[in-house]
Amino acid sequence: MSKLPANKQINGTFGAVWVNNEKWLDVESFEAKVNPEYEDVNMAEDLATHKKLIGWNGEGSMTVKKVYSRGAALLANAVKTGVLPEINIVGKLADPDAFGAERVAIKGVTFNEFTLLKFEQKTRMTEELSYNFSDYDMIESIS
Q1: CA atoms of 20 and 75, how far apart (whole Å)
Q2: Measured over all CA atoms, what is the biggest interatomic distance in the chain, rounded to whole angstroms?
Q3: 129 in a domain, yes or no?
Q4: Number of structural domains, the chain?
Q5: How confident is the model at residue 135 (pLDDT cuts 50, 70, 90)?
Q6: Which of 21, 29, 111 is nearest to 62 (CA)?
Q7: Which CATH number fits the domain that encloses residue 105?
Q8: Contact of 36 with 58, CB cutoff 8 Å
Q9: To pair with 87 at 20 to 30 A between CA atoms, which of 5, 40, 109, 124?
Q10: Which tens digits make up the pLDDT trace of 46-91?
Q11: What element of type H or E holds 127?
């Protein structure tokens, strides 16, 4: 087996995020993950505990540089009126020196919280936005 070239490891600087088709240029970090949910299954004459997939949940987070009021702009009025907006996210990681790109569409997004105001002296401010989601599509993957 030949050695893997070091320059093929993807650099996160080439990641991008679109929220409701708007490219957010202030995203510092992004993560979306799926957590399978299993139920134990015991079989006759077998001491092992097996697992049966019974569902899944999606969760993630992104950190944005505090340039805009991202969370408040999306949710401040919505949580007061009880009418939440439909939110979809597309994330992409496409380092031009890598073997390919990854792109995923995340649907049914609900943000868990947002910050109305926060500051700290002599500190570059960021905003953490954690979320859950109910659907996703793998649009592109690296093979």
Answers
A1: 13
A2: 65
A3: yes
A4: 1
A5: very high
A6: 29
A7: 2.30.110.20
A8: no
A9: 124
A10: 999 999 999 999 999 999 999 999 889 899 999 999 999 999 999 9
A11: strand 126-133
> Would you list the DSSP string of 80-93?
HHT-PPP--EEEEE
The answer to the question of residue 42 being in a domain is yes
Question: pLDDT tens-digit profile of 1-44?
Answer: 688 889 888 889 999 999 999 999 999 999 999 999 999 999 99
Q: What is the per-residue pLDDT for 143?
A: 84
Nearest to 32 by CA among 102, 127, 125, 101: 102
Does some domain include residue 7?
A: no
CB-facing half-sphere around the CA of 84: CA atoms within 13 A: 11
Q: Which domain holds residue 24?
A: 14-140
Give domain status of residue 3, yes or no. Answer: no
Distances (CA, A) of 89 to 68, 94, 131, 141: 18, 16, 11, 17
